[in-house]
């Protein structure tokens, strides 16, 4: 019976130990394969020739204690650039080979330093490309200079054009001739009111010619002399509007006319004497016509004598345009002589 008991007691345990050993071995193999896939065991097998002095030297301020069989090093001073580059390459390899859940917290700082070192290297490598663009604006500058050089030339041309236009505007473009036709208003038509106004330039071109409606009732149209008829007043311009249009033309100009004070009176306007030329009071013009110098000669007589042309003929009345053109032509005959006289004896306004 004792032998049987011994067989029963020691027969079962051996297979249990074998099973337990197999399970531990399989677990170890699984862990080993897992660590090999992660590369942790390969790191241990590498020869420690890369950092021979770290294990032999005592711990320093920049070295952290060993964790899981690996030493972690803090960044070296910035003065040694070669050491920073070599340590940066080694740390990049360690970062790839290490498992994130096995590495201690200080390794994150080293990783950030390595990343910064990589950024610095990229920045330094890109510096030559940044320095090259300043050469391009230097090529563009010469193209801008001709434009800047041309601007003064263009300005001088503009000034010269302005000067030429200014000279041409002084004389004769600032000189006009005027003639007005009147009708009778007021008691028995004895008041002369403006009914037509014509203005021509130095060359005789018509600048203004309008029939004008007087503000008062017309008593006498004076058609034999004025040429105005009732039908002309149907679409005539009101006096106030016409007066404003006429004064815009006369302002600042030399105005030539024959007995021009009558025209200004009808316009209810006073023009400066220094800018007024009255052909009825120009002695050189009378001398040319073999008339007394101080006599007041009619426009019709002077035109016939000096221009050999008939105006104000017939019963249809006068033409203010024709009279204004004749007045300008008469003044041109003595313009140089009379302007020199006025320059020496300027009339007072």
Q: Which class best fits the helix and strand makeup?
A: alpha/beta
Give me the strand/helix succession. HHHHHHHEEEEHEHEHEHHHH
**Cα distance spanning the termini:** 167 Å
Mind telling me which CATH architecture of the domain at 175-345 this is?
A: 2-Layer Sandwich
Overall shape: it is: elongated
Strand content: 5-15%
CATH topology name of the domain at 175-345, in short, is: Nucleotidyltransferase, domain 5
Total helical elements:
14
Protein name: Interferon-stimulated 20 kDa exonuclease-like 2
Domain Exonuclease: 174-340
Region (Disordered): 1-112, 125-170
Biased composition (Basic and acidic residues): 14-23
Task: Outline the structure in words.
This is Interferon-stimulated 20 kDa exonuclease-like 2. GO terms for molecular function: 3'-5'-RNA exonuclease activity; nucleic acid binding. Residues 143-152 have a biased composition (Low complexity). Residues 1-112, 125-170 are annotated as: Disordered. Residues 174-340 form the Exonuclease domain. Helices cover 55% and strands 12% of the residues. The protein is α/β, with parallel strands linked by helices and 349 residues long. It has a domain at 175-345: Ribonuclease H-like superfamily/Ribonuclease H (Nucleotidyltransferase, domain 5, 2-Layer Sandwich). Strands 1, 2, 3, 4, 5, 6 and 7 form a seven-stranded mixed β-sheet that branches. Strand 6, helix 10 (260-267) and strand 7 form a beta-alpha-beta unit. Helix 12 (299-307) packs across helix 13.
């Amino acid at each position: 019976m004792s032998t049987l008991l011994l067989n029963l007691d020691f027969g079962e345990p051996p297979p249990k130990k074998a099973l337990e050993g197999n399970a531990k071995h399989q677990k170890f193999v699984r862990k080993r394969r897992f660590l090999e896939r992660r590369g942790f065991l390969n790191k241990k097998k590498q020869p420690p020739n890369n950092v021979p002095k770290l294990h032999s030297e005592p711990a320093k301020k920049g070295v952290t204690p060993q964790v899981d069989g690996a030493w972690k090093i803090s960044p070296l001073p910035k003065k040694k650039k070669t050491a920073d580059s070599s340590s940066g390459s080694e740390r990049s390899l360690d970062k790839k080979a290490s498992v994130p859940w096995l590495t201690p917290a200080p390794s994150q700082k080293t990783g950030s330093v390595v990343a910064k070192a990589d950024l610095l290297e990229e920045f330094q490598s890109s510096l030559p490309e940044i320095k090259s663009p300043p050469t391009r604006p230097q090529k563009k500058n010469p193209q801008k200079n001709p434009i800047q050089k041309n601007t003064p030339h263009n300005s001088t041309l503009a000034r010269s054009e302005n000067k030429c236009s200014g000279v041409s505007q002084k004389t004769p473009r600032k000189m006009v001739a005027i003639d007005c036709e009147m009708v009778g208003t007021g008691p028995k038509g004895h008041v002369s009111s403006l009914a037509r106004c014509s203005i021509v330039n130095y060359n005789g071109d018509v600048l203004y010619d309008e029939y004008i409606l007087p503000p008062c009732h017309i008593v006498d149209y004076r058609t034999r002399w004025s040429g105005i008829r009732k039908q002309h007043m149907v679409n005539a311009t009101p006096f106030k509007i016409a007066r404003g249009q006429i004064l815009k033309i006369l302002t600042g100009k030399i105005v030539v006319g024959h007995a021009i004070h009558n025209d200004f009176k009808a316009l209810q306007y006073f023009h400066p004497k220094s800018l007024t030329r009255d052909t009825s009071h120009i002695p050189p013009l009378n001398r040319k016509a073999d008339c007394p110098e101080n006599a007041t000669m009619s426009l019709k007589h002077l035109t016939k004598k000096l221009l050999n042309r008939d105006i104000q003929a017939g019963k249809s009345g006068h033409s203010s345009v024709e009279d204004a053109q004749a007045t300008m032509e008469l003044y041109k005959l003595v313009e140089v002589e009379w302007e020199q006289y006025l320059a020496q004896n300027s009339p007072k306004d």
